[in-house]
Amino acid sequence: MKVVDDYFGCDVFGRQAMQKYLPHSVFKIMCDVMDNGKELPNEIADVVANAMKDWAVEKGATHFTHWFQPMTGITAEKHDAFINPTGPTSVISEFRGKELIKGEPDASSFPSGGLRATFEARGYTAWDPTSFAFVKEKTLYIPTLFLSYDGSSLDKKTPLLRSIQALNKAAVRLLHVMGFSDINKINTTVGPEQEYFLVDEEMYRQRLDLIITGRTLFGSAPVKGQELDDHYFGNIDERVKAYMEEVDEELWRLGVYAKTEHKEVAPCQFELAPVFSAGNVAGDQNQLMMEVLQRVAHHHGLVCLLHEKPFDGVNGSGKHNNWSIVADTGENLLEPGDDPKDNIRSLTILAAIVKGVDEYQDLLRISVATAGNDHRLGANEAPPAIISIYLGEELNAIIRSLISGKDEHNTVNTDLQLGITALPKISRDTTDRNRTSPFAFTGNKFEFRMLGSSLNISCPNTILNTIVAEEMTQFAAELECVSQEKVQEANIELIKRTFKEHQRILYSGNGYSEEWRQEALKRGLSELKTTADALPHYTEPRYLEMFGRHKVYTANELHARQNILLMGYYQVIHIEAQTMAYMLRKQIIPAVLDYEAKLASIIQTKKEAGIKFTMENKYLTEINDALELIEQHLEELEELIQKSFTDSKEAADFAAQKLLPLMDAIRKLSDVIEARIPRDVWPMPDYNDLLFRA
Ligand code: ADP
Ligand code: MG
């Protein structure tokens, strides 16, 4: 019997392996590189590379790869063997420092948004020693950044690392002026809860839409959906259990703290949540988790769908991003302390977050904007496309009293007390939860709930880190202007003022309701419904300036991202439109015509025999009316598909305003026909086959 304690992290070149394989002096330097961001001295790179190779070869590795996250959102890798010829018929395994530190993949086919012309293919990858190398399928994986030759980021990881640095700088500056001189470094902690669907592989193979687009473009409602609420937390059946066991084991070997798994609300929907880890590592590990979930499914005759909305009519999948800040003293800075001084600290950080989220709502919305996620947000199953913050009853009461100067928190059943600092104490356990809030405080962390299930979590975290860094910098600058004995007083005033000015972003009610939408719009909160609406705001001057100030994105990098994301959005929808047209022409229309012929001949036979055929006549008319309309729409769709674009915003608007509504109309008609046609005539597995066979 294998015990997880013995093999957890065995395929990771973590501290234990480093200690074993590196000379002690080099190990200490590596720790300094990992913990304090020190640069790796060139002369020890060879030693580290060689140790890594020895360790990996013992694990059966024959190849190495730089593992990076281009702006496609998924990971990329190119494998090189360790072999180096030593004579006409001999080789030795070799891995040099410079191969560890830098790689030069042919980068011409990755999206660059104009940052690099295609004829100038060279981009390079650079080792990220703050994450961990690992061995998977006989290959040593080295997490890397991906940059163009002028140092512009072509990936998702570089801005994330920059934003963690910016947050560190701002937080330490603020904490020092507040008197917390024992804190010299902070990091973010992130725990992403991953949702996914499982479908039977044989059924999946017969659905071109699932294969090509990850979602069903057709499908009338199943006989049972999620109305009984019987899937959520339900008993996990054997095939899925065996799958989860294998997923866990693989992830544990890779040092991922896979922890909680359960059935989700929709039929065949599940969730896997890890224990949180450092922001950067959490990003890499979530990519690994998604990859392992998908790969292992095939061993069990299943397919794992990470799309945000594979099925109409039941819930889609998201990814809750739990986020907090931890200091080098080990304290969680969002954790309310017993000491009034710590209490001021957590309230100051809360105030910075509230201000940041209010002022940069659009950026947070943009950070989760994708074609897939557009199907969820605002659809009564996921947060609306409007950002608001839920703080919980107790904190709300505290904030109300801070703002009004009256002791309103007495109404709340906790042991609030006005301390010497005139700030009430916050209890640790704010268990009241509001599942409908897009951005909720859950006791000692924030949970950003708008992410789609397939999203690379780097972008939302980059934005979150940067906006909080911005507010903390402003707070620090303000407090630095007052004399030391006045800092606390000024700090409390700052907290009060901030909450007062940004109250509009706080909301505790039902975030899914239409009343909230109306109220939010009255409050002046922004609602960017689609990706095409949201992304054009990315490059507003005030955002360019803010990202520039914190050295997270240059103006060029941000424009490039905007282009890539807008074009990507159009392309996803364009491919869906093409898939839809193909399935109609090749599968659905021929099958419906056959069935119509059959019905017509039944009617004819009945007519000749002089018996009743009114119902058959009715079915034939209904089916034929819908088919006629589909054929007309299809011609229009095929015309629209032909259009080409050079301007990415135009393309995105076209997809949102022309392609999607037409596809929606076609789908509705097709679903009407599907509901009236025998199962064996319908040319693909239906929702009953897909949702209840996993
Ligand atoms: P749920 O939201 O489903 O009720 P929990 O609140 O227990 O579940 O935790 C959800 C996720 O939050 C887990 O992945 C957990 O590791 C993560 N988490 C807990 N504390 C922190 C923290 N301080 N920073 C970041 N993530 C955290
Ligand atoms: Mg959660």
UniProtKB/TrEMBL annotation:
UniProt keyword terms in alphabetical order: Coiled coil, Ligase
Top-level taxonomic group: Bacteria
A Pfam family assignment: GSIII_N
Signal peptide (residue range): none
Originating species: Catenisphaera adipataccumulans
SUPFAM superfamilies in the record: Glutamine synthetase/guanido kinase
Domain GS beta-grasp: 62-151
Residues annotated as domain GS catalytic: 156-588
Family the UniProt entry places it in: Belongs to the glutamine synthetase family.
Coiled coil: 620-647
InterPro entries: Gln-synt_C (IPR040577), Gln_synt_N (IPR008147), Gln_synth/guanido_kin_cat_dom (IPR014746), Gln_synth_cat_dom (IPR008146), Gln_synth_gly_rich_site (IPR027303), GS_Type-3 (IPR052725), GSIII_N (IPR022147)
UniProt protein name: Glutamine synthetase
Gene Ontology biological process terms from the UniProt entry: glutamine biosynthetic process
The enzyme's E.C. designation: 6.3.1.2
GO molecular-function term, one example from the UniProt record: glutamine synthetase activity
